[in-house]
Amino acid sequence: MNKYKVFVEVLAKHDTYGNVRPLSIKWEDGRVFEVDRLIDVRQATSLKGGGVGIRYTCKIMGKQVYLFDDEGKWFVERKQ
Asked: Residue 30 and residue 40: Cα distance in Å, rounded?
């Protein structure tokens, strides 16, 4: 198990063009956080957790968060 990856449940909107927009994440302790703003979407590598996927740069509670979709498994990088 990778200590830098936190797998999360994501509520997302999928449009008819195949675009995915995360709306909220459910943290490992059950708390739910709304995605306030989606800043960027790109193919990227998680430098802390490893793996390649679609990286969603989001604003959640005023903080920038990298949310990764790695073939349908969503994770965020744990703060050190």
From this structure: 26
CA distance 65 to 6: 12
* Rounded Cα distance, 61 and 63, in Å: 6
Report the pLDDT averaged over residues 14-23: 96
Distance CA 54, CA 65 (A): 13
Q: Whole-model pTM? A: 0.88
- By the 8 A CB rule, do 33 and 27 touch? yes
Write down the domain spans for the chain.
5-77
Residue 1 pLDDT grade (very low, low, confident, very high; cuts 50, 70, 90) = low
Q: How far is CA 67 from CA 8, 59, in A?
A: 9, 10
**Token digits for 8?**
């999360």
